[in-house]
Design a protein that fits this description.
Number of strands: 6
Largest sheet: 3 strands, antiparallel
Strand order of the largest sheet: 1-2-3
CATH architecture: Roll
Radius of gyration: 12 Å
Number of domains: 1
Low-confidence stretches: none
Structural class: mainly beta
Length: 76
């Protein structure tokens, strides 16, 4: 798995591989799912269309950040 970092605001995801950063509007997120791995969660973000990092982006998240992300994305 290639290492990526995801941040977000009220309207967009910002995905970086630490060289390139892209902005993805939440409207382009088809679905996301997560599964536990120790005290963290493996989050799978599936996009409507393939982008710079592909159609599926996987990242690790702690539970608190995942809950905030779920609250924001349920609006879209």
């Amino acid at each position: 798995m290639k290492l990526k970092r995801v941040e977000y605001d009220q309207e967009n995801l910002y995905v970086t591989n630490f060289i390139q950063t892209i902005k993805i509007p939440f409207a382009q997120v088809k679905q996301f799912s997560s599964r536990p791995i120790g005290k963290y969660r493996m989050v799978k973000i599936e996009l409507l269309h393939s982008g710079y990092f592909g159609r599926v982006i996987r990242v690790f998240s702690d539970v608190d950040k995942l809950q905030l992300f779920k609250q924001i994305t349920t609006q879209y």
